[in-house]
Write a structure and sequence with these properties.
heterodimer; A: 391 residues; B: alpha+beta; 4-stranded mixed beta sheet; globular
C-alpha cells in the first residue's frame, strides 16, 4: 500500500506548475477572461508546444507509458488552481486519447497532430448524462440526417459546446440512423454551420451553440467509416474525463482555501486577525476537511478505477457528485469569510465560484447523478452482495 | 499510488481466517445485547488471547502478533467479516498495553500484560474528570506521596466499561505544573477507597461509570514510567491506535450502509413509507458517498503510516468524517422507519445505535477540538485566551 505520487507524476506536476506560474500569472488570467473572451491562442500554442496536451495520447503520439486518468487528475489540480482559460482537460483527457486510439485518415491525423501541438483548437460536442428510455446513459446529439450514397447532411442545434467560438473544428459524435454513434471532425467554417456565442457567466469557460443546417459530411470523412460505433470507447473516455476533472475541482477548491486563509490572517477586526476567532477557524477547518475528503476519495477511485464499465461509471459519478458539491460549498464559505470583499469582483473568489457551478452543471446535474446512484444502490445486484468486509 | 495489499498481509489473512473458521462459535451468529453481550466480549477476548491472536500490534515477545499496519487492517477485516464482537479489553490492549510496553518496568510487563491478554484483568481508562474533559490537562485528582505508596483523592468520569473492570490506568496530579505535573498509574479498583458508580447512558445502558476515589492506595511499583511524565504517555497512548481504529469504523459503517439500503428496499414496499420520498432517497445517496469517502480517508491514513510518513491532521479529519457521517447514516435509518423507530420492535437496533452515536462527536476529542487541531495545522493564529 502506498499513498504517494510516483517520481514521474511529481516531476510532471512540477513542470506544469512552473509553466503556469510563468505563462499564466493572475493578471494574464484576468486579461484573457475579460478582454479575449476566455481564450488565448498564444497560450494554447505554448501549452501544446510544451507537450501538455498529449499526456494521455495513445498509439504513435504516445509520449508517456501507462499514463491514465490518475495522472491527468493530478495535473488537473494545477489547471483548476489557475482556472486555465482553455479546454485543457477536455482536450488532453477526452479528445486526444479518443482520437489517438482510432484509425484516422491522413487529414484527420494531421488535425490531431495540430491539436496536440497547440496549433489548432478542436472542441467536442458533448452528450448529456441523463435518463433515456428508463436507462441512465450518455445522450448524444440526435441530429436529422439526410443520406445519399456519397454523403450525409446533418441538421440540428447543439448547445453548450465549450469554446466553440474559438475552435477551428469540432469533434461531433452523433447517433446515426442505425442507432450507433458515428463521429466526425467538422471544421467550424463548414458550409451550413453557424456558431452562436453564449454570454457565459463563467468567463473562463466560453461556450456557444452550433446550428447545423444540412451540413454536408462525406461518408469517407466519418471517423473509421459509416459502420463503426464509437459508443463504448466514448463512454470509457467520458468516464476518464470525469475522473480527470476531479483534479481541476480539487485544485480550484484548494486555491480558494489558500486565499481565504491568507485573508483571515491579514484582516484585522477588534484589534486581532479575524482568523483568530474560533467561529472563523472552524469554518476554515471545515473547508479543509471537505477538500481532503474529496482528495482522498478521488485519488483512491482513480487509482482503483474498475475495468468494468458499469462499475467505473458508478465510481466516476459518485466522486463527481461529491467533489463538485464540495467545490461550491468551499467557495461559498470563502465568500462569507472574505466579508464584504468576498462580494466584490476585485477579490476574485467569484471566478472559482462560477467555475464550481459550471462543474456542477457540466454534462450532467447533481439531481441526475443522485437519481442514478439511487437506482444503482437499490438494485437487486447491489443488495444481494455479501456484507462488505474489505476496505 | 497503490491501494493493494502486500503478499505478507494476504498470507496473514489466510492464517487468521482459518483459525477463525475453526474457532469462532457459530451460535454467536445470533446477536445479544446488554450484559450478555459484555460476557460474550469477555469470552471472545479470552479465546483470542489463549490462541495468541488478541493483540495485533504488540511485539511478539509480549504475546502480541507484531503485525505491520497493513496486516492489522487485514486482522480487522477478518473480524468484521464474521461480525465478531470487539474483545472486552480492547481499550486496554489497544491503548494502555502499548504504553506499558514502551514505558513500563519489566516486572509490570511480565505481570500485567499476560493477564490483560487473557482477560484475567479487565481494564478501563481513568482520564476524564468532571472539570477536565476537552481540557484534560486541567485534571485535579490528587496523588500524595506516602513513602512506598500514593494516596488518591478525586473523581473520574465517562469511564467506559468501568462497571466491568477491575483495573484502571489512571492520570493523576502529582505536581503543580499543568503538563509536567501529571503522572500515569495503575489503580486496583477492588479496594475500599474506590467506588464505581455506573452511569446510565442515553440508550438506557450502563457501560459508563464514574469512579470516586477516597484515600485509594497505589503502591509505587504501580507507577507507569517516570513520575510527572504522564502527559507524554497519555499522548503516546491516544495517538497509538488511530490509524487502525478508523479503518475498523469505516468497515462497520460500510456494512451498516448495506443494511440501510436493504431496509430502504423493504420499507419501500409500503406506499406510505418515508423510503419512497425523494428527500429520504437523497439522504441514502449521501450516506453511500460518506461511506466511500471514509473508506478512502482511512486507507490514505494507513498507507501513510505504512510508509512512515507524518499523517498531519488526517486523523482529526478521519474522526470528523466518521463521527458526523455515522450519526447521519443512523439518522437516515431512524427517519426511514418513521414511527416504528420509536418502539422497541424488530428494527429497534437503528434507534439504539443512533442514540449511542450521539456520543461519537463528543468522545476521543470533540468535533470542536478536532477543528481547533485542524485550524492550528493550517497556521491560523491562536484565539485570545484560548488554545
Amino acid at each position: 500500500m502506498e499513498y504517494r505520487f510516483s517520481e514521474q507524476q511529481q516531476m510532471l506536476k512540477k513542470g506544469l506548475e512552473a509553466f503556469l506560474k510563468k505563462e499564466l500569472p493572475f493578471e494574464t488570467f484576468t486579461s484573457i477572461t475579460e478582454n479575449e473572451n476566455g481564450f488565448s491562442k498564444k497560450l494554447w500554442k505554448k501549452l501544446g508546444e510544451n507537450g501538455w496536451l498529449g499526456v494521455l495520447a495513445k498509439g504513435e503520439l504516445q509520449a508517456l507509458e501507462d499514463a491514465g486518468p490518475l495522472d491527468l487528475m493530478y495535473l488537473g489540480e494545477s489547471i483548476g488552481e489557475k482556472i486555465f482559460p482553455g479546454p485543457y482537460t477536455l482536450t488532453a483527457g477526452l479528445i486526444v486519447p479518443f482520437l489517438s486510439q482510432l484509425k484516422l485518415s491522413e487529414n484527420q491525423l494531421e488535425l490531431l497532430n495540430e491539436l496536440v501541438g497547440g496549433e489548432k483548437l478542436i472542441t467536442c460536442a458533448l452528450p448529456l448524462f441523463g435518463k433515456a428510455d428508463g436507462q441512465f446513459d450518455f445522450i448524444w446529439p440526435d441530429l436529422t440526417i439526410n443520406e445519399d450514397s456519397e454523403q450525409l447532411q446533418l441538421s440540428g442545434t447543439i448547445q453548450n459546446v465549450p469554446f466553440i467560438q474559438h475552435a477551428d473544428a469540432v469533434l461531433l459524435p452523433f447517433k446515426n440512423q442505425s442507432g450507433a454513434i458515428s463521429a466526425v471532425i467538422l471544421p467550424t467554417d463548414s458550409r451550413g454551420m453557424k456558431i452562436e456565442s453564449d454570454q457565459a457567466i463563467n468567463l473562463a469557460k466560453p461556450q456557444g451553440s452550433m446550428i447545423l443546417d444540412e451540413v454536408p459530411v462525406r461518408k469517407n470523412d466519418l471517423i473509421e467509416g459509416t459502420a463503426s460505433n464509437h459508443q463504448a470507447l466514448l463512454n470509457e473516455q467520458l468516464i476518464n474525463y470525469f475522473i480527470s476533472l476531479n483534479g481541476e475541482i480539487i485544485g480550484g477548491a484548494d486555491e480558494v482555501l489558500k486565499r481565504t486563509i491568507h485573508y483571515v490572517k491579514e484582516r484585522k477586526q477588534f484589534g486581532v486577525p479575524v482568523g483568530s476567532f474560533q467561529a472563523v477557524k472552524h469554518m476554515i477547518a471545515e473547508m479543509h476537511v471537505e477538500i481532503e475528503k474529496a482528495r482522498s476519495y478521488c485519488v483512491y477511485t482513480a487509482a482503483k478505477l474498475s475495468n468494468n464499465p458499469s462499475e467505473s461509471f458508478m465510481q466516476a459519478i459518485s466522486t463527481r457528485l461529491f467533489t463538485a458539491n464540495v467545490y461550491k460549498q468551499v467557495c461559498e464559505t470563502a465568500i462569507q469569510l472574505h466579508g464584504g470583499m468576498g462580494f466584490t469582483w476585485e477579490e476574485s473568489i467569484h471566478y472559482w465560484y462560477k467555475e464550481s457551478m459550471y462543474q456542477l452543471a457540466h454534462i450532467t446535474h447533481p439531481s441526475m447523478m443522485n437519481d442514478f446512484l439511487l437506482t444503482r444502490l437499490l438494485s437487486q445486484e447491489e443488495l444481494s452482495k455479501e456484507l462488505q468486509s474489505h476496505l | 499510488m497503490d491501494f493493494t495489499y502486500s503478499q505478507e498481509a494476504e498470507s496473514f489473512r489466510k492464517d487468521f481466517r482459518s483459525w477463525l473458521e475453526a474457532n469462532y462459535p457459530s451460535e454467536w451468529n445470533h446477536e445479544v445485547t446488554g450484559d450478555q453481550h459484555v460476557q460474550r466480549r469477555k469470552a471472545w477476548g479470552k479465546m483470542l488471547g489463549q490462541g495468541g491472536w488478541v493483540a495485533p500490534a504488540w511485539p511478539k515477545e509480549y504475546g502480541g502478533l507484531g503485525l505491520s499496519i497493513e496486516q492489522q487492517l487485514v486482522y480487522i477485516e477478518e473480524l468484521v467479516r464474521i461480525n465478531a464482537p470487539e474483545v472486552l479489553n480492547s481499550n486496554g490492549i489497544g491503548i494502555f498495553g502499548m504504553t506499558l510496553i514502551r514505558y513500563g518496568t519489566e516486572e509490570q510487563k511480565r505481570y500485567y500484560l499476560p493477564r490483560m491478554l487473557n482477560h484475567d484483568d479487565i481494564w478501563c481508562q481513568g482520564f476524564s474528570e468532571p472539570n477536565a474533559g476537552s481540557d484534560l490537562a486541567g485534571l485535579q485528582t490528587k496523588a500524595e506521596d506516602r513513602g512506598d505508596h500514593y494516596v488518591l483523592n478525586g473523581q473520574k468520569v465517562w469511564t467506559s466499561y468501568g462497571p466491568y473492570a477491575n483495573k484502571c490506568y489512571i492520570l493523576v496530579r502529582t505536581g503543580e505544573s499543568r503538563y509536567k505535573g501529571i503522572s500515569m498509574m495503575i489503580l486496583d479498583l477492588d479496594q475500599p477507597g474506590v467506588t464505581v458508580r455506573p452511569i446510565k447512558n442515553i440508550a438506557g445502558e450502563s457501560e459508563l461509570a464514574e469512579i470516586f476515589l477516597e484515600d485509594a492506595v497505589i503502591p509505587k511499583t504501580d507507577v507507569v514510567g517516570e513520575i510527572n511524565n504522564g502527559w507524554e504517555m497519555a499522548n503516546y497512548a491516544l495517538a497509538h491506535e488511530r490509524g487502525i481504529h478508523f479503518a475498523q469504523r469505516a468497515l462497520k459503517m460500510q456494512q451498516e450502509f448495506q443494511q440501510l439500503a436493504a431496509l430502504f428496499q423493504e420499507q419501500s414496499k409500503n406506499d406510505h413509507s418515508p423510503a419512497n420520498s425523494p428527500v429520504m432517497q437523497t439522504k441514502l445517496v449521501e450516506a453511500y458517498l460518506a461511506c466511500e469517502v471514509l473508506k478512502s480517508v482511512s486507507l490514505r491514513n494507513i498507507a501513510l503510516i505504512a510508509q512512515g510518513e507524518d499523517t498531519g491532521p488526517l486523523p482529526a479529519i478521519a474522526k470528523l468524517a466518521w463521527s458526523e457521517s455515522h450519526q447521519d447514516l443512523l439518522n437516515v435509518g431512524v427517519e426511514v422507519l418513521g414511527d416504528e423507530a420509536l418502539i422497541k420492535g424488530n428494527n429497534r437496533v437503528w434507534m439504539e445505535k443512533f442514540l449511542l452515536s450521539r456520543a461519537e462527536t463528543i468522545y476521543a476529542g470533540t468535533t470542536q477540538i478536532q477543528k481547533n487541531i485542524i485550524a492550528k495545522s493550517l497556521g491560523l493564529p491562536s484565539s485570545k485566551g484560548g488554545r
